[in-house]
Design goal:
two-stranded antiparallel ribbon, 4 strands, two-stranded antiparallel sheet, mainly alpha, 62% helix
């Protein structure tokens, strides 16, 4: 998890109602794609999927996890005394493990979580947040074991984030610790309301396109095999 996307500043300029409306449209795209994939397709990793992306169900569960982590960060910021920002410095990059005799990532090794191919290694805090999101995503898939249950959970989490953002609207310019590091709360809301759902929607739509292409190729192969069998029978 590498912080807000490059375009998050533009998203952050939108009003909360605009962010919520755009997030609702992205949620519609996610629901259409995931339902079209079906229960079996949701567990199939598309060919050529970038390392670390995972199956569509995991992608969707990760979105729910990130929304829940972001909502918790907003609630903690809202509960802080007015005018007090909670930004904290990143921990030191490494601490010495006196047992192994080698430097280890701060925080018990969470920074060693594998990163997608081609992306820079995350800082310790970001790596811990990514590991936390992945662990929570696994729990979300267990708690919401069907496509419909998972979609309902994402929608609930999206509304939870929107509600907390409205409650903390006067403090959205403050910087607080979040799953993306110590950033302005408005940037966090924009990232989780639009940028992250957009990435999820695109990944699910890519998986659906791959599934349909595989089905088309299988149908063509079956048709060719059938035609060959008929031709062979005619010659006999």
């Amino acid at each position: 998890m590498q912080g807000p996307a490059p375009g998050a500043q533009a998203f952050a300029a939108l009003s909360l109602p605009e962010l919520e409306e755009a997030g609702g449209e992205l949620m519609r795209r996610i629901a259409v794609a995931l339902r079209a994939l079906g229960e079996a397709g949701a567990d199939h990793v598309p060919p050529g999927e970038r390392a670390g992306g995972g199956a569509p169900r995991l992608r969707a569960a990760r979105l729910a996890a990130l929304l829940e982590l972001a909502a918790a960060a907003l609630a903690a910021a809202e509960a802080a005394p007015p005018g007090v920002e909670g930004a904290a410095a990143d921990p030191p990059p490494a601490e010495h493990d006196r047992h192994a005799g080698a430097p280890q990532p701060a925080g018990g090794g969470a920074a060693s979580v594998a990163q997608p191919v081609g992306e820079p290694a995350a800082r310790p805090r970001e790596a811990r947040a990514e590991a936390q999101a992945r662990a929570l995503a696994a729990g979300v898939m267990y708690a919401a074991p069907t496509v419909d249950a998972l979609l309902a959970r994402i929608e609930q989490d999206r509304r939870l984030l929107a509600s907390l953002a409205r409650a903390a609207e006067a403090r959205l310019a403050e910087r607080h610790p979040t799953p993306l590091g110590a950033i302005e709360l408005r940037a966090l809301v924009a990232e989780m309301a639009i940028a992250e759902p957009a990435r999820t929607a695109q990944a699910l739509e890519h998986a659906l396109a791959a599934q349909r292409e595989a089905e088309r190729a299988a149908a063509e192969a079956a048709g060719e095999a059938g035609a060959g069998a008929e031709a062979e029978a005619g010659r006999g």
